[in-house]
Specification:
mainly alpha, two-stranded antiparallel ribbon, 11 helices, about 70% helix, globular
Length: about 325
């Protein structure tokens, strides 16, 4: 997001195009994810998992500790590493470097200066604080969901579900969510329509809590939740580009990675039951909805101030 916003501005593109770019990027990401799910399911079944390098005994029905495994469900991870290397090579050869503020000090002094400016911006502009908290809450719930959807759909003493195909279906719904963003953005700003979406997403993640043995209901709810995720990324990408100044964009994003990672670690390392994790995730989404409503009110008040000074508040990149 940080690179895209700066590159978009440096090339002199129309500010209004940025939300379309975010939507198209998320749609493309979803299409790739659909193909990846199908490929992962197929490649995992091409060869059984076996020990490549032996380790100490892991006990009956368990892989040896410290062993290097090959085949089975390890293969999709190996394939992912190959695609990451290809993606890195494409970025290195086709993307322009964004050096940010070249006047800023380097090393520890530069880091301290950048962090200080970012924290001062959070204290001065309530909108920046709110949009960061919204992202932290929503994405913490989303990452907890990533870890827990497979056990939530796996019945005891039953055949393993086709995880790759289910993942592909989720990504199809995510792609549909980007189209939903385009439809909603024609009549309302993302700061407005994101509020009910977060409430609905919270209800979807309550399905495994309310009916833990109803796997069909859980699957449908998860598919609908992925639709909201597909709408979330272009919506919040547009909002962040509108609110967070380019000069502090990377710093602000990194600052809010701290509460995001803390929330995810607290949920996962607590070894909570799957139902409890989904209940906590639903509460995080509800918190995101409340924070989003506060952001909506703050942006509406900010727009009134801009109007009073003759500034176009509808410009997607206005951040002053």
């Amino acid at each position: 997001d940080s690179w895209l916003g700066a590159e978009h501005a440096s090339r002199g593109f129309e500010p209004a195009w940025l939300s379309t770019t975010f939507a198209n990027a998320q749609a493309g990401n979803s299409i790739v994810a659909i193909l990846s799910g199908v490929l992962g399911e197929w490649i995992a079944g091409t060869t059984p998992m076996r020990v490549l390098v032996a380790g100490s005994s892991g006990g009956e029905d368990a892989a040896p500790d410290g062993a290097i495994m090959w085949g089975g469900y390890c293969l999709p991870f190996d394939a992912a590493a190959v695609f990451l290397l290809i993606g890195g090579a494409v970025i290195m050869t086709t993307w322009n470097e964004n050096y940010g503020d070249t006047k800023q000090s380097s090393g520890a002094d530069g880091l301290r200066e950048s962090l200080t400016k970012g924290l001062l911006l959070l204290a001065r502009d309530r909108r920046v604080l709110l949009v960061g908290l919204v992202c932290s809450c929503f994405e913490a719930a989303m990452y907890a969901f990533v870890f827990e959807w497979t056990p939530a759909l796996t019945a005891a003493n039953a055949p393993r579900p086709p995880y790759g195909e289910i993942f592909a279906a989720m990504m199809l719904c995510c792609a549909a969510g980007t189209r939903l963003f385009g439809f909603l953005a024609e009549s309302r700003g993302p700061e407005d329509f994101a509020r009910p979406l977060f409430v609905v997403a919270s209800l979807f993640l309550l399905a495994p809590v309310i009916a833990p043995s109803n796997y069909v209901l859980a699957l449908v709810a998860f598919l609908l939740f992925e639709g909201v995720v597909g709408c979330y990324f272009p919506a919040l990408g547009t909002l962040k580009s509108k609110i967070v100044p380019d000069a502090q964009r990377s710093t602000i994003y990194n600052i809010f990675r701290v509460p995001l990672n803390v929330l995810v670690l607290l949920v996962l390392l607590s070894k909570l039951p799957t139902q409890t994790v989904f209940a906590v995730s639903a509460l995080l989404l509800l918190a995101a909805a409340i924070l989003q409503h506060m952001l909506f009110a703050a942006m509406r008040g900010h727009a009134d101030v801009l109007d009073a000074h003759g500034v176009d508040a509808k410009d997607p990149l206005v951040s002053v």
